[in-house]
Amino acid sequence: PYTSTVLESIRQEHPGAVIGAITNGRGNPLEMPSVASYFDFCVSGEDDGVFPRRKPDKGIYEAAVRTYNAMQGGSIIQENDIGFNWIHVGDDLANDVGASAACG
Asked: What is the DSSP letter of 91?
């Protein structure tokens, strides 16, 4: 029930943050009027180039990084980049937390 409130707080407190959705489903927040303005991209496990590498496979997270890099004009995220933080919030311990942690 607090999704919009939390996303609005992130936008206000971190105006340079890029917010993306990583989902195994077909629900795309960019197509949901109540939250669309908070998201910059969405990667789905159903997308071409991702399927069948859905969560918990790290392929979907790699696709999200490629999407982010493309949004940034091709500048590549470097491991241990001090100016960059990737935060993943999920609702499933194995598919979200464990899978994203395995990516580094």
From this structure: S
For 97-101, the CB contacts below 8 A with 24+ separation are 98/56, 99/55, 99/56, 99/57, 99/58, 99/61, 100/61
Of the candidates 75, 85, 77, which has an alpha carbon nearest to the alpha carbon of residue 10?
85
Q: Are 94 and 57 spatial neighbours (Cβ–Cβ below 8 Å)?
A: no
What's the pTM value of the predicted model, to 2 decimals? 0.83
Spell out where the chain has E strands. 20-23, 41-44
Q: Convert the pLDDT of each residue in 1-28 to its tens digit.
A: 788 999 999 999 998 889 999 999 888 9
- Between CA 38 and CA 73 the distance in angstroms is 21
Nearest Cα residue to 100 out of 92, 14, 70: 92
